């Protein structure tokens, strides 16, 4: 299996770097946008079951995304490691790393699925769920957790393919999965009359199908190079060890998101339902901007593996320019069109007003978010996980007082949700922008070689 997009002859020139970025980012964009479409489809369909169902989905999907998000190192660490080995000219070792990552993903997925199913009522209660909202949330979470092994296998296999500079295969698989998810949701929620449980089951089935497809692709490539397919303790442990700093970094991000949901819960069911809409749209834009971060991961890892510092700097500079520009364009569209598209999610006028207020705040912060996401990708591609772990903890510490202040003093409804997003999209993202920006200005993160 060869990389899908080999570097051009003059990769350090702006035009050459742009071609590399676009060749990786455009297919990655399609794949990443397909993932939050799962949440958007669920939100739109469940929203018409009532406010309690939509609020329950907000809590349950937060728990599910948190569990999966904590394991995102399966993609990030694998991308960086595979890209470095590819840059050093060792394709067999690159694919071996991908196979080991998939075995780790399968084991984690099985354990986490069982634990999440058993702890569902406690986890949702800790977020403030009670009454009808809690009933809806537990139902969705328990029906969706059988798909957890598939979700984690998708992360690991996608990370391996990105490291090989193949973002087209994940695009095809993710797009097919999004279509299947929408069809399954429609049939199970309304046709079979399962309600919110049908939404969880449909998502689980779609994710398991995507995982099977991607695993076949990676295994076929590994066989072609003679890489081992059986689990090896040494390789699995190496993947796990490399992922620990990224796990800490991701845990700090997920704790910030959980704190945000907890705060929204305290603002009432209307604000919580509105937050689900804002969060779904924010997730869509974040994943879209992450396409540039993924391109940066693969290209920076490849350049450092090849000991090419000049190309590393060129990738950093151009991906940051693309990130800020793309964030500005998306922010403008999301802010201006918010009063129109919120109607897709809910017929409740109060929830619509709350969602619009939060979306306008989020839209203003998107150019800064583009900067943050790209720098995250650059530093992950460089294997600078230890710094990202410390920076994640520091930014969480900066955000906690702001979120607690909103919980204590903000009004309910639209105004409260707007203040919550000022704290999250404003202060929290600004703290991330400063820490990663200062790191990228130096050279200590640019460690060359395999």
TrEMBL record:
The chain crosses the membrane at residues 21-41, 53-82, 103-123, 143-164, 171-190, 196-219, 255-274, 280-301, 322-342, 354-375, 387-410, 416-434. InterPro entries: DinF-like (IPR044644), MATE_fam (IPR002528), MdtK-like (IPR048279). Keywords: Cell membrane, Membrane, Transmembrane, Transmembrane helix, Transport. It comes from the Bacteria. It is found in: Cell membrane. The keyword Transport applies. It is a multi-pass membrane protein. Pfam families: MatE. The keyword GTP-binding does not apply. Belongs to the multi antimicrobial extrusion (MATE) (TC 2.A.66.1) family. This is MATE family efflux transporter.
